[in-house]
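Subject — a protein and its fold
Fields — amino acid sequence, structure tokens
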Amino acid sequence: MKEYFLFDPAEDYLAPALQGYRLVDDEYVRIAADGEDALVSKALGLRLHAEEGHLMFYRLDTGQRLLTEKEARQAAEAEVARLREELRRRDGS
């Protein structure tokens, strides 16, 4: 494992709540946070950031935030509804 991350959303055990470590010469070294308290995962190509008790992931190449599980489910449900409506319109024509 080249990197590992720890996240304590309630901040009961970790300070800061998000910590990461990278393997360097057979030893894990703590990953320094950037100016926004985010950590960069070179292995994943993502920037990890704790936001209001949630762990958010951002693509390094575009800066785009990845959807949370809830957001992805809602997007999928909306797409299914859109496709059903399109099929209903086609069947009605």
Remarks:
- The chain has two domains: 1-62, 67-93.
- DSSP finds one helix and six strands in the chain.
